[in-house]
Amino acid sequence: MNQPDFFAAAAARRREAPLAARMRPRDLDEFVGQREILGPDKPLRRAIEADRLFSFIFYGPPGTGKTSLARIIARRTGSEFVVEKAISSGVAELRARLREAADRLGLEGRRTVLFVDEIHRFSRNQQDVLLDAVEDGTVVLGAALVENPHYALSDALLSRVRLFAFRPLDEADLRVLLGRALGVLGAAAEEGALEHIGRVAAGDARQALNILEMAAAAAGDTRIGLETAVAVSGVRELRYDREGDNHYD
Q: Which of 72, 74, 97, 128 could form a disulfide with 81 if both were Cys (CB 3.0 to 4.6 A apart)?
């Protein structure tokens, strides 16, 4: 009787995953963009490379690498990476994660990076649950949000973390990413098509990769041309946030 090939199944799932998921960087050398905080001499990069973990909050537009960098930090430091979705996590779930992290640290000596996506959706009560665990090192809090953290989060939580602002990727960064993605897809594209995708994506790597994947599917076995890229990209809407800052930016 044939046994299931779990490695082959995992490889098949990776191939079937969206391009943006397949292109998620696994280390700092693969990470594209955010040179202001990840350059060779920047404090965050030095801390990651020296395994000096501290709680952090990344804020900025979508598709700029916030979650990817948090995963890299956990991997580089040998920490458990636990994801909490703010829209579906209550106080009881948070307390359970903190107990698990305390047990992991006490029994295995292994740290936990508790990553809270969209942490601006947490109530003040939920934020308060994290305070002691962050302060005593039970967990390393990692979080991401698109809102201004000074408006969305409590002063008590902000005083326990380091804040890092993420910027939209520039067109040169997106061109590097798209070039790598063509290799993953086994596709080719006209330079004008890649330039168009980079402009339309407006600094959002996920958006750029989604457009490229659609363009490759539409082109079939032919080279992705500008006309195809334009056809699948549609019109990029302006981003709006609660305070209206993005409109003026």
A: 74
pLDDT in tens, 219-242: 988 899 999 999 998 755 444 455
- Report which of 113, 123, 166 is spatially closest to residue 143, judged by C-alpha positions: 113
Contact 56, 91 (CB under 8 A): no
203, two tokens: 């600094």
* pLDDT of amino acid 182: 96
**What is the gyration radius of the CA atoms in the chain, in angstroms?**
20
Q: What is the 3-state secondary structure (H, E, C) of 3-21?
A: CCCHHHHHHHHHHHCCHHH
Give whole-number Cα distances, 228 to 185, 190, 194, in Å: 16, 10, 11
